[in-house]
UniProtKB/TrEMBL annotation:
Membrane topology (UniProt): Multi-pass membrane protein
Main location: membrane
Family annotation (InterPro entries): MMPL_dom (IPR004869), Mycobact_MmpL (IPR050545), SSD (IPR000731)
Protein name: MMPL family transporter
Species this protein is from: Corynebacterium hylobatis
Length: 779
C-alpha cells in the first residue's frame, strides 16, 4: 500500500491539473444536480417496529383518514388576548377574525373555510358534544372535562388555538414559501396588541434556520492554528482549501440524495459538515506536515530560520519535491487511510442498529469522511504541486514553526519525559479526573425534540409555554389509544370502549380520556388520552408505561385489546430504543476497531488501552454534558433540557473515530522507532515527540470547529458541538497525551507483545512506509 500511495502522491504532484480538474468538475457537477433535483430534508424521526409505530399503522388501516402525527402537514396558531382582556371581547374578536381572514386568503391551506376564531369554534364544539354525551348517559362532570380537553378556548377565555392544515400530502411536501406566507401574517399581528405565535409540525422547521457563522468561525480558528503550525500563509491555507472542497462535495451530495430518499434529516448535512470539516483539515494537516519534514530532510535545512528554509526549498528541483510528496503520502497517507477507516467503522456501524434516519445521518457523514481521505491523498498533493516552490511562502511574522525531527527538545519531549519519571502518578491522575467528571452521566435523560425544547423566545417555544399555562402541560402531549374489539359480539363493543376509558382514567398521570372516533361497525375506537404532564417530563414516560402495563388486565376483563400511539409515545419509544442499543453498539464498534488497530500496530495491549481510554473520555464527556445542558450546573445554560435521544450514539460514533485518529498518528511513530531498534521506553518518548505537535494542532482545530457550532440556535447542534469539543479535548490531551504514554511506559516491552500464532496469520500492513524508504527521486 505504501508504494501505491507513493506513486499516487508523486504523480499528483508532477501532473497537477488532471487531479485538480477531476475534483473541481465533480464539485460543479454534484452542485448542479443538487440545485436541480434536491428536495427539502425531512424533519421527522421514526423507527419501524416500535409498539407506537405498529399501533399507528393499524389505526391507519382501520381509520383510513388517520394520519401519522409526526408527519402530518398541520400546525397550530396560538392567540392570546391583551392583558386584562379576553378573546370574547368584541374588539379582540374582530382583530382575530381579521387575522384569520388573511390566513385563509393566503391560498396555501387545505379547507380554509374551516378556520374560524377559537371562540366560535369552542361554542360549536360544546353545542355538538354536550347533547351526544348526555344521550349516552355520561355524567355532567365528565362532559365538562371532555369538552375542556379538546376545546380550542381556554377556560379563562384569554387563549385560543386555531388548527391549520397546509395543502400538502405530508410535512415533507410543504413548500417553504407557503409556511413563510402564513408566518409572515402571524408575525405582523403579533407586533400589535395580540400575542400570536405558532407551533406544530408545519411550523417547527421554520424556527430552525441554520447559519454558516459556525463554519466560518471554526475555519478562522483552524487557520490561526495552521499558521502557527507551519509559519506560512500559503501552507496553512492548503488544508483549509482541501477540506472545503471535500465538505462541499459531501454536503451537495447529501442534498442530492434527498431526491431519492426520505430518510435524509435536516441535521444530516450539519453533522456531515462538522465531521467532514474537522477530519478534512486534520488529514491534510498530517500530510502537509510530513511533506514539510521530507522537504527539510532533502534540503538539509534542519534548525534554520524560516527565511533560510524558504530559500533552500526554492533550490530543490521538481523531482525532489515530487519524491518528498510521494514519501509524505506513502507514510502519513497510510496513517490517514487507517485513521479514516476507524471513523468509517464507527459511523457505518450505526446502520447495524436499523434506524433509517440514523443510518442516513451516519452514511452521510461517512461519505464525507471518505471524500476527506481521498482528497487528502490526491487533490492536496496536486494543489501543492501547482504551487511548487511557493508552497511554504508568505511567512507569518513571529512564528518559527520548529521541526520536531531536529535534535532540539520540544515541549512534547519535555512533557513525555515528565510522564516517564512518574508514570503511575500520571496514570492515576488521568483516570481519576475522567472518572470524577463522568459521575453526572448516571442521571442522563434522553428525549426527542419537541416544541417544549425549542430555542427560548422562538414562536414554537412561546406557543408551547402559553398552551401549557392556559390548557395544562399535557395539551401538547396527547396520546391515542386504539381499542380493537373486532373479536367481541357487536353488543359488547361499546361496553369495551367505555371500560377502556375508565381503565385509562384510573392510571396515574392521565388527566382525561374520551372516545373521539369509532368505526362504523364499532370494531375499533380511538380514545384521546390527555396526560397531566408535558411530552419530555419523566412522569409522562411513566404514565405511558403504566397504560401499556394495564393492557393485559383490560384484555382479560373485556376480551378487547389496545395499543398506544401518537407523537408523544412514538418519540418516547424512539428514546427507549436508542438507549437500549447504546451498549451493543459500543461493543460492536470496540470489537471492529480493536481488529483494525491490531492489524496496524500488531500488538494486543495497544488496541486494548486505546479502547479503554476512549471509554473514559466518552464517559467524562457524557458527565460534563449532562451536568451543564441537562442539570444546568454553573448556570452556563439558561434552559436545561434532557439530551436529544440520538446524541449519545452519534457522539460515540464520531468521537471513537476521531480518538482512533489520534491513536494512529501518535502511536504509529512510537512503533516505527521500536521496529528500528529503540527500546520500548525510548520509542515511546521519541514517537511522542514527533507526533505530539501535529496531534495537538489537529485537536485544537477539531475543538474549534466543533465548539463553533454552539452558536447554532438548534439545541441539538449546540449540545453536539459542545460534547464533541469536550470529547476531543478529553481524548487528545488527557487520554492520548497522558494516559496512553504513562501506560506504554509501565508496560515497557510488553506493550508490543503479540502471540506468535497471531503474528503469522495477520496480514502485513506497511503503515510506517518501510517499503518506500529505499526509493530515490526519479531523474
Amino acid at each position: 500500500m505504501a508504494r501505491f500511495l507513493y506513486r499516487l502522491g508523486s504523480s499528483a504532484y508532477r501532473r497537477s491539473w488532471p487531479f485538480l480538474a477531476f475534483w473541481l468538475v465533480l464539485l460543479i457537477a454534484v452542485g448542479a444536480l443538487a440545485g436541480a433535483f434536491a428536495k427539502s430534508p425531512s424533519t421527522t424521526f421514526t423507527i419501524p417496529g416500535l409498539d407506537s409505530v405498529v399501533t399507528m399503522e393499524k389505526m391507519q388501516e382501520r381509520f383510513p383518514g388517520a394520519e401519522d402525527a409526526t408527519n402530518a402537514p398541520t400546525g397550530n396558531i396560538v392567540v392570546q388576548a391583551p392583558e386584562g382582556a379576553a378573546l370574547t371581547d368584541p374588539q379582540v374578536q374582530a382583530q382575530v377574525n381579521e387575522m384569520l381572514a388573511e390566513v385563509r386568503d393566503a391560498g396555501v391551506l387545505s379547507e380554509p373555510e374551516t378556520i374560524v376564531d377559537p371562540v366560535l369554534a369552542a361554542q360549536g364544539l360544546a353545542a355538538q358534544m354536550t347533547p351526544q354525551l348526555q344521550a349516552q348517559g355520561v355524567p355532567e362532570q365528565k362532559i365538562t372535562a371532555d369538552v375542556a380537553a379538546v376545546s380550542p378556548l381556554s377556560q379563562d377565555e384569554t387563549t385560543g388555538i386555531v388548527s391549520v392544515r397546509f395543502d400538502s400530502v405530508s410535512l415533507m411536501d410543504i413548500p417553504a414559501e407557503d409556511v413563510a406566507a402564513v408566518t409572515g401574517i402571524l408575525d405582523r399581528y403579533d407586533e400589535g396588541d395580540l400575542t400570536v405565535v405558532y407551533n406544530g409540525n408545519a411550523f417547527g422547521a421554520a424556527s430552525g434556520d441554520i447559519e454558516m457563522t459556525s463554519e466560518l468561525i471554526g475555519l478562522a480558528v483552524a487557520a490561526l492554528v495552521l499558521l502557527i503550525t507551519f509559519g506560512s500563509v500559503v501552507a496553512a491555507g492548503m488544508p483549509l482549501v482541501s477540506a472545503i472542497v471535500g465538505v462541499g462535495i459531501g454536503i451537495l451530495g447529501i442534498q442530492l440524495t434527498t431526491a431519492f430518499s426520505e430518510d435524509i434529516n435536516e441535521m444530516t448535512p450539519i453533522l456531515a459538515s462538522m465531521i467532514g470539516l474537522a477530519v478534512g483539515i486534520d488529514y491534510a494537516l498530517f500530510i502537509v506536515s510530513r511533506f514539510r519534514t521530507e522537504l527539510i530532510k532533502a534540503s538539509g535545512a534542519n534548525d534554520v530560520t524560516p527565511k533560510e528554509l524558504a530559500q533552500r526549498l526554492r533550490e530543490l528541483d521538481k523531482e525532489t519535491r515530487a519524491h518528498a510528496m510521494g514519501m509524505a503520502v506513502g507514510t502519513a497517507g497510510s496513517a490517514v487511510i487507517f485513521a479514516g477507516l476507524t471513523v468509517l467503522i464507527a459511523l457505518a456501524a450505526l446502520s447495524i442498529i436499523n434506524i433509517p434516519f440514523l443510518t442516513a445521518m451516519a452514511l452521510g457523514a461517512a461519505a464525507t469522511v471518505t471524500l476527506a481521505v481521498l482528497i487528502a491523498l490526491s487533490f492536496l498533493p496536486a494543489l501543492m504541486g501547482l504551487l511548487g516552490t511557493r508552497a511554504f511562502a508568505v511567512r507569518f511574522p513571529g512564528v518559527k514553526a520548529p521541526d520536531p525531527e531536529d535534535d532540539n527538545p520540544t515541549m512534547g519531549l519535555r512533557w513525555v519525559r515528565r510522564i516517564r519519571k512518574r508514570p503511575v502518578t500520571h496514570l492515576i491522575a488521568g483516570v481519576l479526573l475522567l472518572g470524577v467528571l463522568a459521575i453526572p452521566a448516571s442521571s442522563m435523560r434522553l428525549a426527542m425534540p419537541t416544541d417544549g425544547s425549542a430555542t427560548p423566545g422562538t414562536p414554537p417555544r412561546i406557543a408551547h409555554e402559553i398552551t401549557a399555562d392556559a390548557f395544562g402541560p399535557g395539551r401538547d402531549a396527547p396520546m391515542i389509544a386504539l381499542i380493537d374489539a373486532a373479536d367481541l359480539p357487536a353488543e359488547e363493543r361499546p361496553v369495551a370502549f367505555g371500560a377502556g376509558v375508565e381503565k385509562f382514567l384510573g392510571v396515574e398521570g392521565v388527566r382525561n380520556a374520551q372516545v373521539v372516533a369509532t368505526t362504523e361497525d364499532f370494531s375499533a375506537a380511538q380514545v384521546l388520552i390527555t396526560p397531566e404532564y408535558g411530552a419530555t417530563d419523566p412522569e409522562t414516560s411513566e404514565t405511558l408505561q403504566a397504560l401499556r402495563e394495564a393492557s393485559a388486565d383490560f384484555e382479560a376483563e373485556t376480551g378487547a385489546t389496545y395499543g398506544i400511539t401518537g407523537a408523544t409515545p412514538i418519540f418516547d419509544d424512539i428514546s427507549d430504543r436508542l438507549g437500549d442499543v447504546l451498549i451493543p453498539y459500543i461493543g460492536i464498534v470496540l470489537l471492529l476497531a480493536f481488529l483494525v488497530l491490531l492489524l496496524v500496530f500488531r500488538s494486543i495491549w495497544v488496541p486494548l488501552i486505546a479502547a479503554l481510554g476512549f471509554g473514559l473520555s466518552v464517559a467524562a464527556t457524557f458527565g460534563v454534558t449532562v451536568a451543564i445542558f441537562q442539570e444546568g450546573w454553573l448556570g452556563l445554560i439558561s434552559d436545561p433540557q434532557p439530551l436529544l435521544s440520538f446524541l449519545p450514539i452519534i457522539l460515540i460514533g464520531l468521537v471513537f473515530g476521531l480518538a482512533m485518529d489520534y491513536q494512529v498518528f501518535l502511536v504509529t511513530r512510537m512503533r516505527e522507532g521500536w521496529t528500528h531498534g529503540k527500546t520500548a521506553g525510548n520509542a515511546t518518548a521519541n514517537g511522542f515527540k514527533h507526533g505530539a505537535r501535529v496531534v495537538t494542532a489537529a485537536a485544537l482545530i477539531m475543538i474549534s470547529v466543533f465548539a463553533a457550532f454552539m452558536m447554532q440556535d438548534m439545541a441539538f447542534i449546540k449540545t453536539m458541538g459542545f460534547a464533541l469539543a469536550a470529547a476531543v479535548f478529553f481524548d487528545a490531551f488527557i487520554v492520548r497525551m497522558l494516559i496512553i504514554p504513562a501506560t506504554m511506559f509501565l508496560l515497557d516491552e510488553r506493550a508490543w507483545w503479540l502471540p506468535r500464532w497471531l503474528d503469522r496469520i495477520l496480514p502485513k500492513v506497511d503503515v510506517e512506509g518501510e517499503g518506500i524508504r529505499d526509493l530515490e527521486p526519479a531523474r
